[in-house]
Structure formats: C-alpha cells, structure tokens
Amino acid sequence: MSLLSVQDLAIRFSTGDGTVHAVNNVSFDIAPGEKVALVGESGSGKSQIALSIMGLLAKNAQVSGRILHEGRDLLTLSQDALNKVRAKKIAMIFQDPMSALNPYMRVGRQLTEIVELHEGLGRADARKRAIEAMEAVQIPDAKNRIDAYPHEFSGGMRQRIVIAMALICKPGLILADEPTTALDVTVQAQIMRLLDEIQSELNTAVLLITHDLGVVAGFCDRSMVLYGGRMMETAPTKDLFAAPSHPYTRGLLRAVPNINDAAGELRAIPGSPPNQLRPLTHCPFAARCVDAVEQCRSTLPELTGEATKRACLRPVEALS
Ligand SMILES: Nc1ncnc2c1ncn2[C@@H]1O[C@H](COP(=O)(O)OP(=O)(O)OP(=O)(O)O)[C@@H](O)[C@H]1O
Ligand SMILES: [Mg+2]
C-alpha cells in the first residue's frame, strides 16, 4: 500500500516567454516509512514536485494529474481541507531555515501555533509539546531557549527548529528540500543523523531532495532520478549505485566508483539542460546522451520495469 501516489503529474508555468514545461507526466509512489531520494540537476523540477504535493505552487502554475494521499486527490482539495493535511499529515522542510521561520516571533510561539491550530491544544499543553519537540531535535536547554527569537540561534540550530516544526504533529510524510545545503559540512552530518534517528523512531516516510549523493547513499532506501522534468530511473539505492541503468544516471555517477565513495556534489555532464519552453516529444536527455540513436530524438520513452524502472529506448547491454 502506498502512502502517496503521484500519477501522471504535469506542471507548467505561463510566462512572458511562453509555457515552461517544468514537470512532464511524472509518476511515483512512496510507501509508509520509506525514505526516497529525488535527485537531478538544477531546474529538473524537484522542488516543484514537492511544492505541488503541498499545494504551494506559484500562481502562474497549471497542474494536472493526481496526487493521491490516503485515498484523496490532494490536487482537488479545498484550501481548508489542504490546510488540515499540511503539517498534520505532510510537512515540508525547506532549504533556508530563515525563510521558514518568522524572524519577529519567538521560536516557541511558532511551534505552539502549529499544535494549537492542528490539534486544538491549549496554551500550556502546546508549550509542553513545543519543549518536547525542541528536545527531540536536541536543542540544549529547550525550556529556556523556547522564548528566544530565530536570530539568537546558529544556522544549524535554526534548521533543527525548522525540523521540530515539521515533526511536531508527527506527520506520516516529510518532504525535505535540500534540508542541509545551507549548512556547513559537520552540521549537515549532524542534521542528517538527527533526521535518520527521528525517522526510524516515528517511521515517517521521507522524500529527500538533494544534490549530495553521499547523503542519498547513506539515508535513502530508494532513489529517483529526474531530468528535464521527466523521471529517468528509479531503483533501490544500492542497485542504482552498483549498476545505474540509464545513461543519465551513469553520467551522474561516473565519478563515483562505489556507494561508499559517494560523497560530494552531482557531477556536471557536458551540454546544456533541455529547453523547457517546448513540449516534450522525445527523450529530453538525447541531445547530451553518449548512447543516443536516431529514435531517441523522435520518441519519448516510458518509465518501465519492476524494482528498477527506466525510461530509455536503449537496452542496458547496449550502453557504453
Ligand atoms: N513560477 C515560475 N514560473 C516560471 N517557471 C518556473 C516557476 N517556478 C519554477 N519554474 C521553472 O521550473 C523548472 C523546475 O524548477 P524547480 O524549482 O523544480 O527546479 P529544481 O530541480 O528544484 O532545481 P534546484 O536544484 O536548482 O533547486 C525550472 O526551469 C524553473 O525555472
Ligand atoms: Mg529546488
């Protein structure tokens, strides 16, 4: 049974230059408690997928497809109904902790507000929950720090508070969009360890968006690779690293000999990203693909397979 089922999701933006085809008929499922990575180069559509699940797309977006959560299509819910899902059932952690926090409000109030609104707790109970939430993300002296303002915390501590806000209602699914990118390397590792601990304790499902293959290897059960708003490959993480089956994934991983050496940023592949102002009529990676044949420039491959799914016309054995 899947917790979230994204089906045929397409996201377009109307702009002065024309229609931007940001996400092109993407489908995937997340099971309860599953940790899934979403990787792909800048502009591939990762954040827009997460935002569409939260109902937070920009005004100029047009979205189609279905996002089923507990049997309901989130794309058809009213703002009111969606507000109930957000925070309580699905929470999002953004890259920049300062943008997720209100600088003029004490952190404790920002935490209590959520449980007062979503769980109807009174002031005193809400405060207790807020302290527990801060302790769960290992903020020292939470009882006193609860009355501090965001700027009184370090970047790493602020991101812990953002995580506490995401977790305070114990949602079944967390969407974490580059949760550690704004932090330095040691703090990144602490935050990922913390997320991992909390995840296994609460059995929360996580969709993790990241550029860092080391984080993917260390944290995620399954990985999904996006290119030009299209799903290229999805596989159990260990299989993806051991035997990437899509030329794009191979390009990304070429610098990474094995899963244990998977530290660092995604590698750049020669060529430029696809022009998203044109609707997709063929494989978006064809222009940069070392294995492309004529048919790749005229046909749009579907994502097919079992444990490993790939969208490529070329058989794995034929790849260079
Ligand atoms: N409001 C908007 N209007 C027009 N285009 C948009 C809008 N929002 C996003 N886009 C475009 O949608 C595409 C996908 O953007 P998205 O933010 O999902 O990328 P991403 O994969 O998260 O990249 P990054 O790794 O840089 O965060 C990009 O080409 C982006 O420019
Ligand atoms: Mg993004």
Automatic annotation (TrEMBL):
Tell me one Pfam family matched here: ABC_tran
Keyword check for ATP-binding:
yes
Residues in a coiled coil are none
Single annotated GO MF = ATP hydrolysis activity
Span of domain ABC transporter: 4-253
Is NADP a UniProt keyword of this protein? no
Q: Which GO terms describe its biological process?
A: peptide transport; transmembrane transport
Kindly list the places in or outside the cell where this protein is found, as annotated in its UniProt entry.
Answer: Cell inner membrane
Q: Which Gene3D superfamilies match?
A: P-loop containing nucleotide triphosphate hydrolases (3.40.50.300)
What NCBIfam families does the record tag this protein with? oligo_HPY (TIGR01727)
Q: Which family does it belong to?
A: Belongs to the ABC transporter superfamily.
Q: What is this protein called?
A: Oligopeptide transport ATP-binding protein OppD
Taxonomic lineage is: Bacteria, Pseudomonadati, Pseudomonadota, Alphaproteobacteria, Rhodobacterales
